[in-house]
Design a protein that fits this description.
mainly alpha; Arc Repressor Mutant, subunit A; two-stranded antiparallel sheet; 5 helices
């Protein structure tokens, strides 16, 4: 995700104008208010917010909420958006079905 991209910056700015009870992470149903609370309690990165709130741990693996969370961190900490690190990806990178996992055969 390119932070200099116009769409990224539009997403970042759009969340700043919304009320505190707006859902930022749809997968985990985390609100803007919860994100800001985590930041005020010491979260200084997207990964720290993720650990404190579960934002970014849902099925989309932060593909939807990362710009919003990064923007809120940037705004609260008065840091340029370019200084906010990307979230750490954890496998599976893309959602997969349990059925697919069940077909995996271990080597002996």
């Amino acid at each position: 995700m390119d932070k200099s991209n116009t769409n990224f910056k539009d997403n970042v700015n759009r969340i700043k104008e919304k009320k505190d009870n707006i859902i930022v992470c749809r997968c985990e149903e985390i609100t803007k208010e919860e994100i800001i609370e985590a930041i005020r309690k010491g979260a200084t990165s997207v990964n720290a917010v993720k650990r404190m709130t579960r934002a970014g741990m849902g099925i989309c693996q932060s593909r939807s909420c990362f710009p919003h969370v990064a923007g809120l961190i940037s705004e609260e900490l008065k840091k340029p958006i370019e200084e906010i690190d990307y979230i750490t990806s954890r496998p599976p990178i893309e959602p997969i079905t349990i059925k697919l996992l069940n077909t995996y055969k271990r080597k002996k």
